[in-house]
Amino acid sequence: MTEINIVNKNNDYQRFEVLKTNRNKRYKYNEFLVEGVRSLKEAAANGWHIRSLIYDRNDLSDWAKEMIRTVRTEVNFNLTPALLKELSGKADPSELMAVIEMREDSLEQVPLSDTPFIVLFDRPSNKGNLGTMIRSCDALGADMLIITGHAVDLYEPDVVVAAMGSFFNLPVVRVADNKKLYHYIDGLKHRHPGFKVVGTTAHKENPVYRLDLSGPVMLMMGNETMGLNKAFKEYCDVLCTIPMSEKSYATSFNVSCAGTVLMYEITRQRQD
Hints:
This protein has helices spanning 11-21, 23-29, 37-45, 62-70, 81-88, 127-139, 157-163, 178-191, 230-235, 255-271; strands at 2-6, 31-35, 50-55, 75-79, 96-101, 117-122, 144-148, 172-175, 196-200, 206-207, 217-221, 238-241. It is of the alpha/beta class. A 7-stranded parallel beta sheet has the order 8-7-6-11-9-12-10, sandwiched between helices. Strands 1-4-3-5-2 form a 5-stranded mixed beta sheet, sandwiched between helices. The model has no long low-confidence stretch (mean pLDDT 94).
């Protein structure tokens, strides 16, 4: 393993900076910057390709030393304490960061359970909501999260942080072509009789608890402001809603909260 010392803001350091802030550059290099013990542990445990580790060699815990020793990287970077702190941007900077290779977006390569449980998030526009949705999907047993349309960048640092370690444990696939998505769903319906596409809406539709969600299902969640787009609504087999209290001023949930409630209902029904 090669280790490079960085003592000023050279080209390597500037590349780390743009990986944090520039979506286009992330996709140009096909990599993103990650920090945090939980995220790095899960990335390594789930076989993500960690290209480089970034650290201050003079200030490492036993855990960090073990990561550096055992994770196979292409090249590592030893930064000065000041540069590491500035790169982190946190009051208490992480002792270890990583440059990780993005994964290919492929629906067909994601292994599904015998009774598939898939969640789709249409055009997410908020980094925190996307991260939370990933975390909830992971916690409640979804096989995969699909992101459609023009959305916040999946590899934005705030998304990774909000998802915590779940980012590296749950398959997340971005799909830009709706025809490709429909073709995939049609295949699922052919292979899994009874496969149901359930759309969500804030308007009064079928209360979620009255639907049979114990079989193979895809749950479609809409954009935070505009909801699920019209084409997806028309494609769904059924639309559902979460009943609100008649005394409530609120007319809907935050999308990540709604997603968590709906996914819990799917999980609950499967355990009955």
